[in-house]
Structure prediction request, 826 residues.
Amino acid sequence: MEATEKKLKLIVFELQKEEYAIPVQQVRSIEKLLPITRVPNVPPHIKGVINLRGVITPIVDLRTRFNLEEKVKTDASRIIITVVDEQEVGFIVDAANDVVDITEDQIEPAPEVVGSVENKYVQGVVKIDKRLFVCLDLNEILQLDQSKD
Amino acid sequence: MDLNQYLDIFLEESKEHLQTINNQLLELEKHPANIEIVNEIFRSAHTLKGMSATMGYEDLASLTHQMENVLDLIRNEKLNVTTNLLDIVFRSVEYLEEMVLSISEGGDGKKDVKEVVSLLIKIEKGEEYSLPTNSEEQKSPEHTYDSYEITILQQSEEQGYTPYEVNITLRQDCLLKAARVFMVFEVVEGMGEVIKSNPSVDLLEEEKFDNSFQITMVSKEDVSSIKEKIMKVSELEKVSVNKLDTQLLADFQGESSVEVAVEEITAAQVEAAPTTAVLEKNEEKTTPVKGTPGSNKTIRVSIDRLDGLMNLFEELVIDRGRLEQISKDLNEPELIETVERMSRISNDLQNIILNMRMVPIETVFNRFPRMVRQLARDLGKKVDIEIIGAETELDRTVMDEIGDPLVHLLRNAIDHGIEIPEIRSRNGKPEEGKITLKAYHSGNHVFIEIMDNGAGISKEKVLNKAISKGVISQQEGERLSEQEVYQLILSSGFSTAEVISDISGRGVGLDVVKNTIESLGGKITIDSLEGAGTTFSIQLPLTLSIISVLLTEIENEKYAIPLSSIIETAIIKKEEILTAHNQEVIDFRGKIVPVVYLEKVFDVQKQQVEPPDFYSLVLVKKGEKIAALVVDSFIGQQEVVLKGLGQYLNSTFAISGATILGDGQVALIVDCNALIK
Prediction:
């Protein structure tokens, strides 16, 4: 543990009433829902691709990824466009809420049970006042091989 | 100062200068008395030297410097241009190219150039010189050792070993040269230790040598027993073993001349600089000297930026589509007129943007004349190469891929096509063979032709070989047309060479060429007349980023099928679909063609379960094989901009990419190759 407090900015979004967070550096933009073209023969959580200003961008539904029940998309639904390992991928979330500033030492290891999200996708949790954010590991979420079966 | 940021520019410009030097040298060979050409070469060499010295590539600078000295003598008419001299200059340029290549691949651009530098110095001093030919006469310990190798030799001598230089010549008809080399090495290693081989072991393993090679070894045995043991390997013609005098080697190395060259550089740079300006004016006289780089104003733009521009432009095109629709709906004359104007302008804009990615094929063709020259000399043939249409433009992405296949085909033409001079004159042909390399546009395609006036392809030999290798059966062979027979030489595992030669026909055959071209969406055809020559004709799309597709619909999803794989479309009755072995097929003009339901392949959710009375089919091909794809309906033919699905979805089955349609929606592009087994 380092004594110096590294500052972090997190984008907070909502999924099944829970609040999740990813570092702002990994986020390129937040878009309203766009028409998605289905791509056949891919794992179910990959919803397809969109035309993001001329760039074909794959879209992952985080609900499906976390084995949560599918929900009808609303006006609040958003696509968070992220950059992971130089590839752009969009994530569908229920709503994008907030930006919070934290320091690195505020991230605590995830307790054994956090909502229904599998632990391997979780980097840690942050508690600010009465709110609890689950910090996600995008790299892990994008791993294709574990989801094929 | 951080020089890294200049590296790209340095590399680009070095390549340009080397190309100029190359072209002009070839020109000089034809007009040896033309001092104007020498000036041209000198100028490029001089710039190159300055650049590489600044960038800290000493070997590059010293070799260029030495070359420049020789050129200077020619320029001042103190030296005559001879074939021998040109050979050495060509060799220097080759080395320079290798160094630049090594730098561009992240290397340090260092290379052992002592041999060539010392030859250049000899020329400069007016001494006897000649390029050591690698076939005959390499008796004396001409090939040099570096100080490290000499030290090893001396140390092993102190330990009671004797250093030997062994020359081995294989028999002309030796079939598996690499295997013989291996056996020789095994024998040698049984008697002592191999210090060095010439050519290097890698080259020997790849059979990249003529018929002889040299090993430097240390052993405790004497000359005759070494010779005797090596001779036990079969298919060897000659083995000679000489004792090495390490003392002599060390002395020789001491007075090696490279250092001299390096020191002189700084002085020469200053002294030679003013010459360039004077020369510009009297260019019109004498034979044509081709345009210098820099005479037409250009800037370098990275492909990434152009891609960015293209993406934005597509957005504009999509909006244009919407505007057109709105103006049609509103039926307002003024609006319609404005939108039409805008459409025209954006069409022109599109052409300009696409053209920006186009480069003249010259950049690829340019490197061929010297290669042909060298190859012809190596094989003892006389070959002239004519290039037509070098200004033909091609998309940068296609250009990057096409070089290697062309090299392969040219080698093939020289190696197997053009006969040796004696045979040519016996057959009443001019001794010098001719290869024509031609490029031209036609419609949406670029054609590249490689014609030779050599021996042509023997239909019978090809057929016999194909049958004996099991590529086709006897019966199949009888039915093939002439064209189809020629195509056989492009199939894998096939080589027309009677004897496996050094130049081509080594493992990798023409099938690689075919694959590369087909992966670019192109085609290759062969035409030949026995005794008169062969023509390879390559058809390529102008650009890879725009393709013609047939847009089809399945339920509400749109799929694009590349026109290049479509034979035709058809609508057939339900009854015409037959089953054979549980596989649904149709009878397409007497050919049984399997039916593939795209909705099943792509797992489309169907509303209507009842099968329709009529099926819409798209007949697609992969090589000779055909399949019939079933879709719901055809939308129409369209030119689309091809886009990748990105890393994340890279390996999606039967989808090769995507495109953005006029309404902003994404349509997937079907990979027909994956659908046909």
Observations:
- The two ends of chain B are 57 Å apart (CA to CA).
- The first strand of chain B starts at residue 162 and ends at 170.
